[in-house]
Amino acid sequence: MDDKPLGSNGSKPPRPGDAPDVRLLSNPLMGDIVSDWSPVHEAAIHGRLLSLRNLISQGWPVNLITADRVSPLHEACLGGHASCANILLKHGAQVNGVTTDWHTPLFNACVSGSQDCVNLLLQHGASPQPASDLASPIHEAAKRGHMECIETLAAHGGDIDHNISHLGTPLYLACENLQVACARKLLESGPPTLMQLCRLRIRKCFGIRQHHRITGLSLPEELKRFLLHV
């Protein structure tokens, strides 16, 4: 007869090696994001690959989500940990999972600027198009100046000219956030004459004294040189 004490709910307490009770870890009715945070999320966000491997081998599910529908893969990509993202994907992590804020793992990879994570996700079938205009990967990459991420997204079908009503285009966001190198690259990636047309249009707005007026603008020197074509 097994005389081990029972838990508060009448069940036997867990023993080392027992599969985790997922019901205790992911409750959609719980409003506190920390309350359903799991060791798998913790290992993923901090890039603890060995711990993550051990947890998975012990039976922890890779698609465990928080109340905000954040998965371990979301966290691995937010931390820029491609090795952790890779092991999660190999064990069946949902590559296009969406949080309550419409963030996908690919969006989070563009937040961190991890080119390795972006490549890995796209190779596993991640959609370069946003699940919602509230969280567009290519716009997020442009805002943060992650040009390599933009190039990879574009190579997989991402639209570098995608215009979102409340954000504008990736080019607009790059300029708004003074990501000059990113803005230049986006211009060069457009139609052959787009960069020249933009420069000429801006210079025309300044009239005949364009040189004096442009040099007096509160802009980065690189952007001034671009406008002056020097």
From TrEMBL:
The organism's place on the tree of life at top rank: Eukaryota
Segments annotated as ANK repeats: 68-100, 101-133, 133-165
Keyword set includes Repeat: yes
Pathway stated in the Swiss-Prot or TrEMBL entry: Protein modification; protein ubiquitination
Region (Disordered): 1-21
One example of a Gene Ontology biological process annotation: intracellular signal transduction
Residues annotated as domain SOCS box: 184-230
InterPro entries: Ankyrin-SOCS_box_domain (IPR051573), Ankyrin_rpt (IPR002110), Ankyrin_rpt-contain_sf (IPR036770), SOCS_box (IPR001496), SOCS_box-like_dom_sf (IPR036036)
Assigned protein family: Belongs to the ankyrin SOCS box (ASB) family.
Name of the protein described by the UniProt record: Ankyrin repeat and SOCS box containing 9
Taxonomic lineage of the native organism: Eukaryota, Metazoa, Chordata, Craniata, Vertebrata
